[in-house]
Structure prediction request, 431 residues.
Amino acid sequence: MLTKGLRIGDNGHLFIEDCDAVELAKEYGTPLYVMNETLICENCKRYKKFFSENFSKASFPCYASKALSCLEIYRIMKEEGMGVDVVSGGELYTALNAGFPAEKIFFHGNNKTEQELRMAIKYGVGRVIVDNLTELEVLNEIAQEMNSNVNIGFRIKPGIDAHTHDYIRTGQIDSKFGFALENGEAKEAVRLALECSNLTLCQVHCHIGSQIFDTQPFADAVKVMLTFIAEVKNEFGYSIKEFNLGGGLGAKYTEADAPLEIEEYLAPVAKAFYEACQELCIEEPSFHIEPGRSIVGEAGTTLYTIGNVKEIKDVRTYVSVDGGMCDNIRYALYKAEYTVLNASKNEGTVLKKVTVAGKCCESGDLLKENADLTDPKRGDILAVLTTGAYNYSMASNYNRILRPAIVMVKNGRSRVVVQRESYTDLLNNDI
Ligand code: LLP
Prediction:
């Protein structure tokens, strides 16, 4: 299986956009994250186009930068006219350093520190998405002290069960994120927010989970959230002007995944949005979303060099590569499935069933079990597809392994956007 922007060249090598993966590996070394910039930009343009044709002028899509955060991605998002969602002072700092406009940043998180809240106010982020009552109180105090007014949103749990992995399901009441609707907590939060001298409640937000293939839970969430806006209007006479549906659209990792195209996902969402506004007789709020995976996921491919091939007779064959859970923790963490292929010779013959293992001192450090690989040999380049989201951003230095470089490819040309770490980098903070 090949995802968007990938093909096998006449020489049997994998091509990413118009670049030969084996040549990229030779030029930049491995492991290497290769990002197809053309595809990232195309995805943003598709989101933007749908928005400009279907939603009000004040509406815009944001990129959820937890999926992949580095200076260049914020520069691209700025260029594409997207907003961004950040979840830490570190992501905020990176976005600001890339010259990303603060007013188009939404700051999330269930436990922002006071230092992070101060930073958000100081730099004037567009919205602080408040998660809980304590944060509401603390933020108001800090805003008073800094003599500022802060535009806020509320993270709300809409009580929608999206069928995805337990760890990435967030819409239900038993979740650490946000205010619950069922027990009146969200209403109480509105009442209190309206009393806060230095906060203006602008937005309600929900995020029901990630890697979702079905449109129904999104449409249901839209209905629930707009009903909440209507209730707030009726009970408090207050109009909440913005609605944010979060992220969650799935990406294709294996043949078994059938993600919707961006427009196929947005069309029923827009329909649910306008129907609910009409039914509830509310003024249409501006509309926002925060896709991460569906923008960068399939745009990423990780290249490794195959090292030792260990055949354990009647048990299995381990093919070890020069990275692993340190650059892609998703199999170890979620048993996430990937497609792997031999980028050096993918003619589809002599397939071998193997387990692809990383180089960390950890038996669970695997990238894929039961992988069909074309004749894997030491020195071949192995590609793992759909690694653009939640790979680099979740990478670690476990075993003091160096984090790989990121190379962007566009129109057949490549450039480094994040350098490979060096041994000196490892000692940067050691005293
Ligand atoms: N907005 C909020 C508030 C979120 O919490 C998330 C993801 C997103 C947007 C973006 O969701 P996306 O469009 O990427 O599905 N590490 C996990 C994924 C965790 C997602 C956390 N929140 C993984 O590797 O699958």
Q: What stands out?
A: The CA atoms of residues 56 and 405 lie 39 Å apart. The pocket of LLP is lined by residues 64, 66-67, 85, 108, 168, 207, 210-211, 246-249, 290-294, 330, 389-390 (CB under 6 Å). The radius of gyration is 23 Å. The chain has two domains: 6-36+299-426, 61-296.
